[in-house]
Write a structure and sequence with these properties.
The protein is α/β, with parallel strands linked by helices. The chain has a domain of 214 residues: P-loop containing nucleotide triphosphate hydrolases (Rossmann fold), CATH 3.40.50. 54% of the residues lie in helices and 14% in strands. It has an 8-stranded mixed β-sheet. It is elongated, with a radius of gyration of 23 Å. The chain starts with 7 loop residues before the first strand and ends with a helix. The model has no long low-confidence stretch (mean pLDDT 85).
């Protein structure tokens, strides 16, 4: 399945459908094939450590010969983000104002959206810098709404920065005319904005390249995950991010024992029909419900076998 072999794969979906297990299994399979692989969790409720039964945390940690993992810590990334902003404005802000600007930035650290901005910066950094060190990078993302927001940010931030650059350029032009010497003035703020615009543009180019990046959604054959997935795919399409593969997880055995499971299976058949009629443009990979939680590498190997069958 070529779609799952791209260098960058984002795994998304509703909470509880099996995103982390799917992302871990994809990573494990890639690493076993000899690809140097980085598995990254952007979900604040990390559970990669539980799946691999070892502590991972906010630093890249080796899982096996070819597999490393990272659980992004929003608090640490927010601190690093504010620190980076302070570095960026060093020499730009008047020395008499530095203390007040730093105080404002420290206050902003606790404001809504700060962790999102920090996570976004980390995501861009991984896509642009870590790609040099790994053959595959697989993202285990947070539940759907957060994922859509994160993936749409390169476009939204690109538009926002373009607006700031235009305003900054106009201000500089007015200032030059005021001085009437015709010489363009040096503007370090403009240069900082321009640099960030280039990074967003480079990351967006990679995200939109279907030969480099894949978007995979996981869902269960139930009504709410189907509806949420349909809505998510439509929203991502608006940003030209197209999901081509769906992992339909936790399929019951064909002939389950007992009246209760028999009725569940009847409902499941209806929902699988609904999935096949709704997602006609996506490749569907069916994965059975396992009798136990996936908590070790052998079980991941068993789980990943279904990607090959898909």
């Amino acid at each position: 399945m070529q779609e799952l072999q791209n260098k960058i794969v984002f795994v998304g979906g509703k909470g509880g459908v099996g995103k982390s297990t799917s992302a871990a299994a994809l990573s494990w399979q890639a690493a076993e094939k000899g690809s140097k692989t980085l598995l990254v969790s952007t979900d604040p409720a990390h559970n990669l450590g539980d799946i691999f039964n070892q502590k991972i945390g906010g630093k890249i940690t080796n899982i096996s010969t070819n597999l490393a993992a990272l659980e992004i810590d929003p608090e640490i990334e927010t601190t690093n983000y504010i620190k980076g902003v302070k570095e960026n404005i060093k020499g730009i802000v008047h020395s008499g104002m530095t203390e007040e600007v730093h105080r404002q930035l420290d206050t902003a650290k606790a404001s809504p959206g700060a962790d999102e901005a920090a996570l976004f910066d980390k995501l861009i950094s991984i896509i642009l810098e870590e790609s040099e060190h790994y053959d595959s990078i697989i993202f285990d993302t947070a539940p759907t709404g957060h994922t859509i927001r994160l993936l749409s940010l390169p476009e939204l931030m690109g538009v926002w920065i373009e607006g700031l650059l235009q305003k900054r350029q106009k201000t500089n032009e007015n200032y030059t005319q005021l001085l009437n010497d015709g010489e363009p003035i040096e503007d370090p703020i403009y240069e900082v904005l321009k640099k960030r615009q280039k990074r967003f543009s480079a990351a967006r180019k990679i995200l939109l390249d279907p030969n480099q990046t894949s978007f995979v959604f996981v869902l269960n054959p139930e009504r709410l995950p189907i509806l949420e997935t349909k809505k998510a795919l439509s929203l991502l399409d608006d940003y030209h991010l197209h999901v081509k593969t769906l992992l339909v997880n936790k399929i019951l055995p064909e002939n389950p024992e007992g009246e209760f499971l028999g009725k569940r299976k009847e409902h499941e058949r209806q929902y699988i029909t609904m999935i096949e009629e709704t997602f006609t443009k996506q490749e569907l990979v069916y994965i059975p419900l396992f009798s136990n939680d996936i908590t070790d590498k052998q079980q991941l190997e068993n789980f990943s076998e279904y990607f090959r069958k898909g």
